[in-house]
UniProtKB/TrEMBL annotation:
One of its GO terms (molecular function) is protein serine/threonine kinase activity. It comes from Pleurodeles waltl (Iberian ribbed newt). Pfam families: PK_Tyr_Ser-Thr, Pkinase. This is Protein kinase domain-containing protein. Keywords: ATP-binding, Kinase, Nucleotide-binding, Serine/threonine-protein kinase, Transferase. GO terms for cellular component: cytoplasm; nucleus. Belongs to the protein kinase superfamily. Ser/Thr protein kinase family. GCN2 subfamily. One of its GO terms (biological process) is negative regulation of G2/MI transition of meiotic cell cycle.
Amino acid sequence: MAGPESRYRLLREVGRGSYGVVFEARASSTGAQVAVKRMPCAAPESAELALHEFRALCSVRGQHRNVVRLEEAVLQRTEPNRPAAPGDFHPLAAREERRKQEPHHLELVESCLKGRPSCPEPGWTCAVWFVMEYCDGGSMNDYLLGRGGPDPRLNRAFMGQLGSAAAFLHRNQIVHRDLKPDNVLVSCGLRGPELKVADFGLSKVCQGIINVNRLCFSSACGSDFFMAPEVWVGRYSAKADIFALGIIFWAMIERITFRDADSQKELLGIYVCRGQNIVPIGEALLENPKMELNIPLKNKKFVPEDVIDLIRDMLAYNPKERLDAFELEIRINQVTYGGEGD
């Protein structure tokens, strides 16, 4: 099989991080615009991220308009000291397709990426290439901050889209665990901007679990400013995703930002000020569960009461008192914010 570089013309780099590199590309045969994400798998930790992304995207492939669509995934295994060749690339099949496309099933992928006996000899390089739909609006963070002040109708539309995506993922036993504006993409189409939840490297596909809200996770992961209080202590459920969405909604509605200490990038997010320091809301609530959340921070006339109540219920300190994704979807459809909504 030819590699992604031969079947897709890489046009430009559009994103880079510890996970890998994302390119804007075009399919050589059709000219279709796509995004190509290359995730190196040299270390067990990076291989685990690639596996999580692969499992999540394959399990819901193209089933929801607000979840980024996977076109194909390819495993690259190249021996040392030579350029990549067509035989180095192997198509990856989803779990439900593995009987049709043996031996490229998930167990072999796990074996190759995690360094088990069937993995190539030491020194070989492994990477997973994800070919996905291209989102021309960039990240939700960059899109909103590039538009200036708050936009009630757009905010209402984005709330509905994210609420629908979260309910869909939880209904399909997927907990994202790293929801934040930088992990949500924007596609600008004729119907207006559409959000696409992406970056599933920290997600969990909980197969066989009917209700993900009853499952307890212990590995604390995510981005500090969007982590629920219970995530900080390593005992949480899918409702941690709802807390993250509450932070996103609040920051989006009021365009509240902070500057990331490492990248110096301006990011949407809510925090508590302590002198010269800023503390994530989840961490502050963990230290003081009775802390009053001043929603909104800026202009009370600008945000309707039903939206304020919604965000409070999403940010409840006690997960038992917090909305789940299915309740959230219903509540968002009931709010009056933005007039007629989306």
